[in-house]
Amino acid sequence: DYTLRGSESRTLASVGAFRVIPASDLRDSFDKPLDPRRGELWHLRESGLVHTVRLDRDRTVVTLTKEGHDLLDARRQEHDSRERQAFHEGVQRPRELKHDAEVYRAYLEEAERLHEMGAHIHRVVLENELKADYQEFLQERNRDRDDSDGRPDRDPLEIQDWAREHDLPCDDKGHVQFPDVRIEYDIDGRDDTLDVEVMTRHY
What 3-state class would DSSP assign to 36? Predict the structure, then answer.
């Protein structure tokens, strides 16, 4: 059993949605940056729900542990899987950690602008989730085939159609471009998406 404040639950959900977030970008119940050595973030660490990784001399990033991921999965309400926020644990790409750590801050800037426009944000979808959907499409014909060599047989036109259905850029050779994060929201009763790409020195 875990006892968490509302702000701690929000921190846990944010970290799970974005996989990694710098501790300084997270806020406690008094809107102060979190510190891994004390307060709410220390409590989450001691409870075994999050793990911290030193990014450089001045920054530490936060990610979920398996226990933190399981807790979020157990607590979220059941509804349509296509609308359900996915949660992620651990560091996926250590070599791209500095780049991935910037995604949440880029999201906050766009989210503030969307909220000022009167939008309601439903969920965020990370690049790896979009790529997983793409790989499932590429491999659909190979599924359950004993004679498959594992290579997709989709032609560029099919890939372009898939990209168009998913509102993703694609060139005439079938190369699809994926954003770092996609924001799904509604405004004035209309569903829409906003793709966010982060550019850094490291990426």
Answer: coil
- The token duo for 186 is 């509604």
How far apart are alpha carbons 157 and 167 in whole angstroms? 15
Instruction: Report the number of secondary-structure helices (H) and strands (E) in the chain.
Output: 7, 6
pLDDT confidence of 153, banded at 50, 70, 90?
confident
- Helices (H), ranges, the chain: 6-18, 39-46, 66-75, 97-100, 103-116, 127-138, 156-165
Q: What is the DSSP letter of 9?
A: H
Closest CA relative to residue 62, chosen from 32, 30, 94, 24 = 24
CA distance 19 to 199: 18
The reported pTM is 0.86
